[in-house]
Amino acid sequence: MASRMEVTAPCIILNEPQLAENIGAVARVMANFGLRDLRLVRPRDGWPQDRSWASASGASWPLDEAQVFEHLADAIADLQLVFATTARPREALLPILTPAQAAGRLRAAAQSSLTSGVLFGGERAGLETADIALCQGIVTVPVDPRFHSLNLAQAVAINAYEWRLTEDATPPVAFREGPPPAEQAALQGFYDQLEQELDAAGFFHPPEKRASMVRNLRVAFGRAQLSDQEVRTFRGVVTALSKGRGRVLAKLAARQGPVKSR
Q1: Tens-digit pLDDT profile for residues 62-81
Q2: Whole-number pLDDT of residue 3
């Protein structure tokens, strides 16, 4: 019988969690299903919170090792695959997965030595569309539409349980053909450069639509799961286009000549 292959389990990212007790309950279910990498983005009441350890009922290691971030982009910067959990996909045109489907993809990614995470929104408002646009897929639990609200720890438990079910002794499955996807930090650098140049070119018009246009661009590139080389190539394309625009403007200025004083 083949031995189980050691893989890097996905991390759990809680974006703006509110209640310390819920964070502790999340740590408890993470421990139940073999997850330990917990990342917190702007917890409402700061960190650490003693009530979290009390709610964890002895499952202290995810809390002891928890990382805290001010910005979501920093929390996922080293990851190559991130799924957002939400009951309302909203405008983001990303693949919609059940927890079981997402777990299968996360397992395949882990067996291909890719880093991954599952993102959960705060108890009150969930995830914003801008947060979802940083991810590569949406996980939606098939609950009764008459009441689709899940407790934070319940949502984590369902996804962690499905992840655990994918653990077996079968040979590793290739995540995808070709080179692995780039880390989120590389993508963020590309997004920043592209959006800066598009701002300079006047692309985002009218201004009130800028946020939705930025989100749509990020979702499109996120779906593509670009490799590091592809990110570098696109950044080179943006640089070449911006330099070309600069040369054109310089030529136009030269043709007009100096402004004569009257």
Answers
A1: 999 999 999 999 999 999 99
A2: 38
Q: Which amino acid is at 214?
A: V
Report the candidate in 119, 28, 47 with the shortest Cα–Cα distance to residue 79: 119
Please state the φ and ψ torsions of residue 139, each to the nearest 5 degrees. Answer: -105, 125
Q: What residue type is 66 in one-letter code?
A: A
The CATH fold assigned to 184-256 is: Helicase, Ruva Protein; domain 3 (1.10.8)
Q: Helix or strand or coil: residue 40?
A: strand
SS (H, E, C) 197-236: HHHHCCCCCCHHHHHHHHHHHHHHHHHHCCEHHHHHHHHH
Which residues 6+ apart lie within 8 Å of 244 measured at CB?
A: none
Q: How many CA atoms lie within 13 A of 36 on its CB side?
A: 8
User: E strands along the chain, which residues?
Assistant: 11-15, 38-41, 67-69, 81-85, 96-97, 116-120, 137-139
pTM of the entire structure? Answer: 0.80
Long-range contacts of 239-244 (CB under 8 A, 24+ apart): 239/193, 241/197, 242/197, 242/200
Side chain identity at residue 212, one-letter code: S
Mean pLDDT of 50-66: 96
Handedness of CA 131, 133, 139, 142 (dihedral sign): positive
List the domain boundaries for the chain: 11-165, 184-256
11-165: in CATH 3.40.30.10: no
The answer to whether residue 88 scores a pLDDT higher than 70 is no
Q: For 116-147, give one letter per residue: b (16+ CB within 10 A) or e.
A: bbbbbbbbeebbbbebbbbbbbbbbbeeeeee
